[in-house]
Each structure stands twice: as structure tokens, then as C-alpha cells.
Amino acid sequence: MDFDKRLEEVRSLLAESTRRVDAQVSQEQDKQNAAQLALHDFIHDQQSQQTALQSAIEQTKLEIAAYEARIPEAEQERQQLTEAIDHMRREIATVRAKRTGTRLERVKQKVAQARGAATENQVRISQRQDVSAQAMACRDALKLDIITMEDDVLKFEFTCVHEDNPSEAYYFILCTPPKPEPYTVRECVPSVPDLPDLLQALNETRDIYQFIRSMWKAFYMFANKKRQVLA
């Protein structure tokens, strides 16, 4: 009896030990499985990261290759841009030179015009002085009144022409432009038939003194024509 009881206790202890061992083995197996799963996940993560890194490296290589391929084209564009800028600068310099030349030419023309105008004014002044001198020589002798109406335009008015009416005025308005423009008579009161011939002679000789005397004589002949016929 004691032996059987003892055997049963041994069996019970053995079964308990077996359960404990099995439990420990199961726990160790679970730990090992968990470790393997964690290792598998770690390896998978590392592989994913490595794949992503490799992909990033490949993308970077492609970008570097594209950039390197772009360098000659960019250099060519830079060269073209530099040439375009140089060409534009030359064109601007040419335009500026033309404008400067044009302005200089205009200044020269204005200077020449100013000199020409000054010379023309001097000629006008000289001719006016000559006309005035010749007219003044006739003024007192012919009872002549000289009126300046505007530049180069003079009115010559005579009195003491008509023997029966000495106060009656006879006049002509003479335009005296500088050479080579001809003298012209703007108005003549009264009109005398010899005026065209007298004016032609004036333009041939430019002798104002003689023209004034001839006009006085023509006025005198016209005014006293009836008196001469009656006489």
C-alpha cells in the first residue's frame, strides 16, 4: 500500500513537473516565436527602408544625370544670352551714335541758319540804310514824307505836286526786300501808267533815289495833265 501510494505521488510529481516543463517550453516557444516575428518585422522594415533608400538614391542619380545633361544646354543658352546682350549693346551704341550725329547735324544746321539769318539781317540793315539814305536825299527837295509801315515796307507820300492844290497827297507803298528778291509796289495812288517801266528800271539798277524822283515826276505829269492841255 505504501509502495502504491508512493508510486502515485511520484507519478503526480512527475506529471506536475512535466506540466511545468511543458509550460516553460511553451513560454519559451512563444518567446521564440515572438522574437522571430519581431526579427521578421525588423528585417522587413529594414528591407523596406533599404528599398526606399535605394529608390531615393536612384532618383537622385537620375536628377544628377539630368542636371549634368542640362549643363551643356545651359552653357549654350548662357553663351547665346551673352551674345544677345553684346549685340544689343552694339545696337544701342549705334543708335546713340546716330542720334548724337543727328543732333550734331541739327545743331550745325541751326548754327548755319543763325549765321545765314544774321548775314541776311546785316544785308537787310545795310539795304535799309541805303534806301533810307537815298529817300532822305529826296525828302526835302520833293516835299516827301516817308513812313515805315513794316519791315522792308515804306510809304512815300508827296505833297506840292498839284499846282492848283499843293496839299493834295500822292503816294506809293514800296516793298524793299533784300537781294535777289525784286522791289514791288503794293499800292500807288493815283495809279500812273509809267509805273511798270519805272519799277523794272528800279529792279535793274536798285537806284531808289532815281525811282523816287521818277515817281514824283510821274505824279506831277498825271496831276497837271489837264492844266498842260489847257495851256
UniProtKB/TrEMBL annotation:
Protein name in UniProt: Kinetochore protein SPC25
Chief place of localization: nucleus
Job description of the protein: Acts as a component of the essential kinetochore-associated NDC80 complex, which is required for chromosome segregation and spindle checkpoint activity.
One Pfam family matching this protein: Spindle_Spc25
Coiled coil: 50-98
GO cellular component, one term: Ndc80 complex
Every Chromosome segregation protein Spc25 C-terminal domain range: 150-219
Single GO BP term: chromosome segregation
Family per similarity comment: Belongs to the SPC25 family.
Record keywords, A-Z: Cell cycle, Cell division, Centromere, Chromosome, Coiled coil, Kinetochore, Mitosis, Nucleus
Quaternary state and interactors: Component of the NDC80 complex.
Keyword Hydrolase in annotation: no
Subcellular location: Nucleus; Chromosome, Centromere, Kinetochore
